[in-house]
Amino acid sequence: MTSSTNRTRRAQRTGPFARALGCAEPIPRYPGGLPRPSLHVDEPGELMAALPAMLGFVPERSLVIAILHILAGGSEGIESVVRFDLDVAVDMHRIDQFIACLFAICEREEATGVLVVVVDDSGEFEGAEVLRASALVDVLEDGGVPIRGAWSVPTVTAGERYYSVHGSVGTGLVADPGSSIVAVSHVLDGKQIRGSRNEMTALMMPDDLMRARVRARLDAADERYRGGLSAAAHVGNTEGYQRQALEWVLWQIADTASGAPRAERELARLAATLRDRPIRDAMYGLALGDHAEAAEQLWAQLARATPGTDRAEAAALLGFSAYLRGDGPFAGVAIAAAVEADAHHCMAVLLETSLQTGLRPERLRRLAHCGHQIAADLGVDIGPISL
Fold first, then answer.
1. Which residues contact 298 (CB under 8 A, 6 or more apart)?
2. Is the whole model's pTM more than 0.85, yes or no?
3. 17-64: per-residue pLDDT in tens?
4. How far, in Å, CA of 177 to CA of 47, rounded?
5. Mean pLDDT across the stretch 92-104?
6. Angstrom distance (rounded) from CA 326 to CA 29
7. 345 near 320, Cβ under 8 Å?
8. What are the sequence ranges of the domains in the chain?
9. Across residues 317-343, what is the average pLDDT?
């Protein structure tokens, strides 16, 4: 098995996502970049060690599908990787939907075959998880999915023993995920590899206490902002008022970068300010600049501290930023939170659709450029656009 590292990095962020089926991890295509040295994966244990970097987190109780393609020059390699919750994959009431979802992905990605890794630690006796995985692989193959190799492993950790569940029987040990060339490449690029998917979902969990505190201040904050905006409009200074508001938000982001969490008064004022569409839209421009990480921290705080549309606004900003930097799994978590908070939120629905269709992040850069222009029209420079 051979794949360029650049293709592997794109792989981890590819995969059309059928939300209606609720089966696959939403992973957008990774934006193009400089060519990378080829990665040769000669052992299943090396492939398994690369999965955390490919997915952005260590998979648990998962069905991971590495989709093979014919690469430039005629060699075959991994071009995309998708993940399914194992409980969904083995749900006999939904197995036909699951097979259809996976087959559609393979067809859309023009797969020449797939490699399957079943991560399952539920066996109550030795070999139980292998039998479970083998039965699942048989179902996939009967459904027309071209399986080139399949293995079962309890956990993706160094030294864990895996077993073949397709073709020739074999076993081996998982290599060290921390020393995988894919992981090293991600670390050098500043990418984060999380210990589990739960680490991502925890970042979006509502903080009930802070919500109550923010809610107590939000009406007054909104009234102050709207009153100031109305007064500014009356004297023909709407843009000046919005410019000051935008500068205040940018100051909040800069201060968040220092690690200081926002107080309820600041979060209430922030939520009220983002209700002003030009201010909110300008914030999308930050996803392409040096302040993207700090902005994401602030959006996460605001999403945890607010309900409804205010939570959707913050979660959509967070999901958009994660999407553009290629962190598909976290983008999916944030966007799902936005849609759950407000099913009619236009940007959240747009981003969700983009994930479902595997839209490349660079196709969304235009929205970020629009944010830059809106800020510029207000007389505010929100920083250079990264290439």
1. 252, 253, 256, 262, 270
2. no
3. 233 334 455 444 444 333 344 556 668 998 999 898 888 889 998 889
4. 9
5. 74
6. 7
7. no
8. 2-193, 208-377
9. 92
